[in-house]
Design a protein that fits this description.
Elements (H helix, E strand, L loop, with lengths): L4 H30 L3 H27 L17 H28 L3 H32 L1 H7 L4
Helix pairs in contact: 1-2, 1-3, 2-4, 3-4, 4-5
Length: 156
């Protein structure tokens, strides 16, 4: 089924964001694990898996619409410590949310309701799970202090 060129272009842009988010979460999960912050590492690794699932959904939809997936991720921003990691990952999620909303509006205009539905599920996951969790962690760091938070992330 031949898809709209505008939708295909937008899906490829979203794919670049998802691949970047996946790669950024990947390195961050490994950094956190190396630092002994196993609970945070496990959660960030979970986010990496979710981003991989999002990328897979986009790739499958692009192929279904007879497009070619562009497998080049957007740029990464690697954190230097745990708060910086969470802040940079949250910035990626905010970018993805903004781009997903715009893509959903485009799909509505282009009357591609199946793609819109796929993107709405991704938006829900991104807003309700990824961004919300990161916002909560940054709030906890402010509430209990960095040292207490770091201690809570160690596996004993």
């Amino acid at each position: 089924m031949k898809g709209s060129k505008k939708v295909l272009s937008t899906l490829n842009a979203l794919l670049a964001d998802e691949l970047a988010a996946r790669d950024q979460y990947f390195i961050h999960s490994r950094m956190l694990s190396e630092w002994g912050l196993e609970h945070a590492a496990a959660r960030i690794s979970h986010e990496m898996e979710d981003e991989t699932t999002h990328a897979d959904a986009l790739i499958r939809r692009i192929l279904f619409l007879e497009g070619t997936p562009a497998m080049t991720p957007s740029g990464l921003t690697i954190g230097k410590d745990l708060p910086d990691i969470f802040t940079k990952d949250l910035a990626v999620e905010y970018t993805v949310i903004k781009n997903l909303r715009a893509a959903i509006a485009l799909c509505e205009t282009e009357q591609d309701f199946v793609t819109r539905e796929i993107l709405e599920k991704m938006l829900d996951d991104t807003e309700e799970d990824h961004a919300h969790w990161l916002e909560k962690q940054l709030g906890l760091i402010k509430l209990v202090g960095l040292q207490n938070y770091l201690q809570s992330q160690m596996q004993v």
